[in-house]
Amino acid sequence: MRKIKKVLIANRGVPAVRIMNTCRDKRIKTVAIYSTPDRLSYHVFLADEAVHIGEGPPQESYLNMEKIIKAALERGCDAIHPGWGFLAENPDFAEMVESAGLIWVGPPAEVIRLMGDKIRAKKIAQRANIPTIPALLKVNTVEDILKWMEEEEIEFPIMIKAAAGGGGKGMVRVDRKEALPLSLEKAKSEAKKAFGDDTVFVEKYIQGGRHIEVQICGDKYGKIVHLYERECTIQRRNQKILEEAPSPSINDDLRQEICFTAIRFMREIGYSSVGTVEFLFDPKTKKFYFLEVNTRLQVEHGITELATGLDIVGLMFDIAEGKRLPFSQEDIVPNRHAIEVRINAEDPKNFNPSFGTITRLEIPQGPGIRVSSGVYEGAEVPPYYDSLIMLVMSAGADRNEAIRVMDRALSRGLRVEGIKTTAPLLLSIIRHPEFIKGNFSTRFIEEHYEELLSMFKEKTPDDEVLKIAQYIAEISALGPQSWM
Which parts of the sequence belong to the Biotin carboxylation domain (predicted)? Predict the structure, then answer.
């Protein structure tokens, strides 16, 4: 067993800050890396040491593997934690870290490589008798797709997906035959641009499908447990925007089945560290299908931590050090409902990125609220990276209470000025009667778009100024008051 005394965090913003908080608890020293536009970032201030890694574009900084490993060795680190995004699911990087004599805080490189290929992952699931969505795994031409649809009796819509994909990139939904040629080209070129690989496959599109994922945790001695499931159905542009645990879509029998199916799959591939198995649930047939494995820490791990009381990042470090899991499946009893929303620096009306300086920032507080922030008041939001600036989580004894706490957090507690954020949209979603009833699918935002927009409460700094002016006018008109 090797002790981790100092770790380099190969990330920025929210994930870097999240990992540093656990490191502080575990008395692990942290080294941050930063690009030129990030030199005054929150994660840089929070770390024990910081290393300048390159210019703004990720290729020159956060994706520069050689530079990152060199920095870790020069600063005397024992380990590298990749967070999520950037190099978190890059098997070459994981191998390079270990070849340099450092500990990789994550699953084995060969497992990352295996699961990074969505087609191979599907084949393994089929071998392990885990249901997968009807798919055509070898696609060259439009004719291939049409022939498959005819043979398997599959109707439109269908989904074209990048084999090396993730994060909603390289995914195109096709609703009619005429759109096929263009959609296939689009998916291929998106895949090439995002992943350097234009291999795609085609799947039947499940109408009204819901995204349910199971959090898994396994040590290096073959012990694997699940930390129950999360519902990640509410998405924009195939990217999650709101998650909750437990899922309101399934009952306890399905919950047991889906969680143990996830364990079975992870055993099959020899998984260790923390990871997530994603499923698509069809509420009409009550069937669930294997989608993919995320071989990293998930953005939404915090709601599982709120529901179970465990520190998932802490477990990653323990497993990387070679420790055994200190609990068994029976010990894990979630007793909270938790919801997370992603506050992105985007215009909530059209999701266009919003850059600039945060001129005012108030962070929600009070019972049942947890905030994972990557910014501070006065911080710059640069245009080069993911637009996530903060995760706001709420917890309650049941779903209604968690929704009420989130309402307080977003409507009363959160103020961000200087840039636009997705907060008004998120508040509209949690106040929407269909969301409160638990009636939603991955197309919820598209289907209720106009209605959600109409629920926005536009509050500007001018409103505050008018309020103060009215107050002053009242005092001057009425003269001194008894309470003054």
Answer: 3-450
